[in-house]
Design goal:
2 domains, Multidrug-efflux Transporter Regulator, Chain: A, Domain 2, 215 residues, mainly alpha
Length: 215
């Protein structure tokens, strides 16, 4: 539309048709927002491209108005932020937001839940080694005889069981007429006495050991 047609459209006022261009003041009244808000939206959304005349006057086409209505619905009705509306325009497109402005319901994509299946590889089990034939299996709690049974006590012979040593009875030596034979007989008696004393000492020592063992 030429500049002359736009100027003529401004003079017509309320008699404009549905396809006629609207000024920023008319669009602000229709959307019930201030004019500076429309200028702010234009700086944030590159999809808003009104026709500009010399002097900076803006004229909005019907599609521009529908887009502005859709942006207003997303911001004020659905509670989206500027970045949220920018994301909808990027992902769903300008026609989707304009359809919302024409009265369609906003179809904001719901977050998708992606199920991720993780396969965990089971580690291979080590081969079980068979016991060798010449080895014998040992039980878990072996019973050791030197732990379970008391140490053997050495039995010492008692007086009753001790061997009886018969005392050596000195035989009477007949007097010899020869002095050498008398000396030999005296030596034999002394030897027998020493042997008896040794046997007696051995018996006494054995008795003491038995008493100590019993205590």
């Amino acid at each position: 539309m030429s500049s002359a047609a736009l100027a003529f459209a401004d003079k017509i006022g309320p008699a404009k048709s549905a396809e006629a261009f609207r000024t920023i003041s008319e669009v602000a009244d229709e959307l019930d927002v201030p004019q500076h808000v429309l200028r702010f939206w234009e700086s944030r959304f590159a999809q808003i491209k009104p026709v500009k005349r010399a002097g900076g006057r803006r004229y909005y086409r019907p599609d521009d108005i529908d887009l502005l209505k859709g942006i207003r619905a997303l911001l004020y009705s659905d509670g989206l932020t500027i970045k949220g509306v920018q994301k909808v325009l990027k992902e769903r497109g300008l026609r989707h937001v304009a359809q919302i402005g024409r009265g369609g319901e906003a179809q904001i994509p719901a977050p998708q839940v992606i199920e991720k299946i993780v396969y965990v590889e089971k580690p291979a089990q080590a081969p079980v080694k068979k016991p060798r034939a010449h080895l014998r299996a040992v039980p878990m709690s072996p019973s050791l005889p030197f732990f379970d049974e008391p140490a053997p006590v050495r039995d010492f012979p008692t007086l009753d069981t001790a061997p009886v040593v018969e005392p050596v009875v000195a035989r009477a030596v007949e007097p010899q007429t020869a002095p050498i034979e008398q000396a030999a007989a005296a030596t034999t008696v002394d030897d027998d006495r020493l042997r008896l004393e040794e046997i007696l000492d051995a018996l006494l020592g054995m008795k003491e050991r038995l008493q100590a063992a019993r205590s």
